[in-house]
Description:
Layout: H1 5-46, H2 50-58, H3 60-78, H4 80-97, H5 104-118, H6 121-132, H7 135-146, H8 148-164, H9 174-196, H10 209-229, H11 241-269, H12 275-281, H13 283-303, H14 307-326, H15 331-346, H16 348-352, H17 361-376, H18 378-393, H19 397-417
Amino acid sequence: MERSLEQRTMRTVYLRVVPFACLIYLLCYLDRINVGFAALTMNKDLGLDASIFGMAAGAFFWGYFLFEVPSNMILEKVGARLWIARIMVTWGLLSGATAFCVGPYSFLTLRFLLGLAEAGLYPGIVLFCTYWFPDRYRARVMACFTVALPVAVVIGAPLSTALLELDGLWGLAGWRWMFIAEAAPTVLLGFIVLLYMTDRPAEARWLSAEQRTWLTSLIDTERRRIEAHRKVDMLRSLWDPKVLLLSLNFFGIVTASLGMLIFLPQIVKQLGLSNMQVGWVSMVPYVFGAISMVVWGWVSDRMGERRWNLFCACMLSTGGLVIAGLFVGTYWSLAGMTLAAMGFYGSKGPFWSMPPMFLTGSAAAVGIAWINSIGNLGGFFGPSIVGWVRDATGSFAGGLYALAAFALMSAVVAALWLHIPQRAVAPDIASAPAE
Length: 435
């Protein structure tokens, strides 16, 4: 049976856009998680205790917060191709420079500058996907490209700990080699972005004229339908109640997720494992997280429902973190963190499908970036809380309970306030014209 115009077009777009977005974000998240593995040996070299490490590692997110909205506004003006290439080259160079830190202050400064450089990448790709994919595809698309997050941990955990074994090569510590080796591919891919990426469907020479016309028309029709129902301008998107509630929900998710992620290697180390074994065992929660992300995104699209899927994912994370805290230092704690990771990553598809249901154009650029920037401040508070509790009590248990409270807060926000009517979305595109 011959494929319909819709099927052929969306398959081509999916294969062109999503795998490349996955690769970009895989390198991005590899850069996020490698600091946790570097801590296994770096903290002693730089004189960092758990609380100082948590605060310095989280300084990245203050830089991210400050430049997130301006970055996405620039991307909307100059195009994703040019701006994402700029982001990747500058963040790669700064990530590599982390290898030359000499103490707490230089480490904190470089983490802050790295956040400035990387700001706008994730919301930029989310915005970019809204140019290419109609609403009914977005949860699975967001899930499939953000599957790079747990996959980065699966790949990065053994890779990072293996690079730590280069300790002493040419007089450099293993953690310094890790930052250099993992930054180089980012800079290279940044230049490839300039050659490969296409900003909008109307410019896609790799689609037929018929496909370009069909997709452009459909995206424009969907945008006009949303704006006719409720148009939010660029400035209003900063304080729109739905944007602020989504920001609060995401803040709770990120605080819990990154608080666990940054300290995961040190928590796993308590099982009495070698550094290399820590790398392999740390993969487990994120293998299940990757599966959960793809499956949950597909389920959310099939159901045509976002809010309660998000609520269930947040509750799963809450329960997993409580189990991890109760049994810290045992393999049951690893099981709890696995459940938590399934919830964190399962939430991505439903969550990031919600902003485009009521934001379009410049308002979408600003609103999505604002949600992400406020939410990502959790990347500072989560590790800082866990590090402070660890130093104060001598255990990670209290920190994990605190993270569970943030995940629970996100679940409550989703259940009580995140009602975004489905009528704001374009009609089911299954009715779009076929060939």
